[in-house]
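To close the section, here is one more complete example, presented without commentary so you can practise reading it yourself. The ligand is zinc ion.
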Amino acid sequence: MSTLLEDEALLFVRELIRIDTVNTGVLATIGDGETRAAQYVQGRLAEAGIASELVESRPGRGSLIARIPGSDRDAGALLVHAHLDVVPVDEKDWTHHPFGAEIEDGFLYGRGAVDMKNYAGTILAVARHFAREGIVPRRDLVFAFLADEESGGVWGAGWLVENRPELFAGVTEALSEVGGFSVPLAADPADARRAYLVATSEKGVAWATLSARGHAAHGSRPTDDNAVVRLAQAVAAVGGHRFPVVRTPALQRFLDVFGEARGLAFTDESLAADLESLGFVSSLVGATTRNTATPTVLAAGDKTNIIPADASARLDIRILPGEDDALRAQLREVVGHGIDIREGRWWSATEAPVDAPIIGILQDAISVDDPDGLVVPYLLPASTDNKHFAKLGIHGYGFVPLRVPRDFDVFAQFHAADERVPVDALHFSARVTERILQTA
Ligand SMILES: [Zn+2]
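Output:
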């Protein structure tokens, strides 16, 4: 028998999936789905007597904020956030309607099933549960249902932090994606212990443009000062460069726990092979051992018989915490002389302490349902809305609890066709999240 809290969480997740909130990243093609989803949440909160504020950064781009007072007036507030938008779907790749929220063989299918209408529906159900049962959480809770995360949060979290920071007054920590799902701790299938990964850190995202300037000339008269050649050499050097391994606290903690459980040393020499042996778990941490700089866009010349004066290339850069200056220096060295590096958007990594008391709260909440479950910090190789809230000094943690079968790869569901989540994992999520938000 499921409880009302669990039933409501499932219902709200399904109803949110049925509101199409696709974020294409192209303003002209984005409708008012986010505002309609925010209105839906607002209506459900109002039924339980919870006031909220709907904020539109632009027409149709709605986010919703609600604050529930806690009992400990000295404790910093906890922000609990979920984005309402989803990435586009290619319907022909789906066997279930992406906005149908159908349930089959114990799985709920739909865009947003794990990214992340599951958490939006769950925290909505928990807020109503608190109101219904007269439960006062320890800390002030700020619930945020946000627009635009999938395109960088410019019209959601980024806009709110810039224009409405008072909504987050007193907030010291945040809970959201990406983490909380279970992965097998041991290699032996007979060992059922699960690790629940908590993202305590997120890689930063930066863009840069390399450019070379040379002598423009006719193609019939080759010159040693050819911008295209010089740029190509720099691009090849960047593409072939491997930045050194950096053992951040989150990575080291992950390696310590999995090394012990699996009998792996994770030395610098064995790191790649040892990570590979973790199976699908390696897809999460494999990209978190180093900084990366990847050439993605090239531009030079437009006529075959003209040597252009300029050539440029754009880089996608992913930075580990505290590595900005080291990466800049290494990149400078790798591209060599005669190449200009211009920085574009630059979001540094976020980093929260791996030993904060809230980690113990997460562990306690998991242990009630899964006594052998172990909460393990890791570094997320991607970036979420936590980067915006970090500007307000808020430490973000990625923890959306989901207990899933040993071979079910939650991370692989993100942005995939037939995105799905086990229904009993959603029930688990509601129970554990209720405990976390009550005691955090
Ligand atoms: Zn997401």
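Once you have examined the tokens, check your reading against these statements. The first strand starts at residue 53 and ends at 56. The pocket of zinc ion is lined by residues 83, 115-116, 149, 177 (CB under 6 Å).
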